[in-house]
């Protein structure tokens, strides 16, 4: 899947996807959910939440 394909699926611009990949902007939770669904991964894989210490999770 290309950035253009992904952007079309989640209703974002390719530039926005590129900015997310390079950490130039922050992603909203709703867009993070859309990205996770489109990429067929769990949301925590996109947010690097698995790297957080266990005590920080609610």
From TrEMBL:
* InterPro entries noted in UniProt: Cro/C1-type_HTH, Lambda_DNA-bd_dom_sf
What Pfam family is a match for this entry? Answer: HTH_3
Domain (HTH cro/C1-type) ranges = 1-46
A Gene Ontology molecular function term for this protein is: DNA binding
Among PROSITE patterns, the record links this protein to: HTH_CROC1 (PS50943)
What Gene3D superfamilies does this protein map onto?
Answer: lambda repressor-like DNA-binding domains
Residue stretches in coiled coil:
none
The name this protein goes by in its record: XRE family transcriptional regulator
Q: Which organism is it from?
A: Desulfofundulus salinus
Source lineage: Bacteria, Bacillati, Bacillota, Clostridia, Eubacteriales
């Amino acid at each position: 899947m290309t950035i253009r394909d992904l952007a079309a699926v989640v209703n974002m611009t390719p530039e926005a996807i590129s900015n997310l990949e390079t950490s130039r902007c922050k992603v909203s939770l709703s867009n993070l959910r859309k990205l996770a669904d489109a990429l067929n991964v769990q949301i925590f894989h996109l947010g690097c939440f698995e790297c957080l210490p266990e005590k920080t999770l609610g």
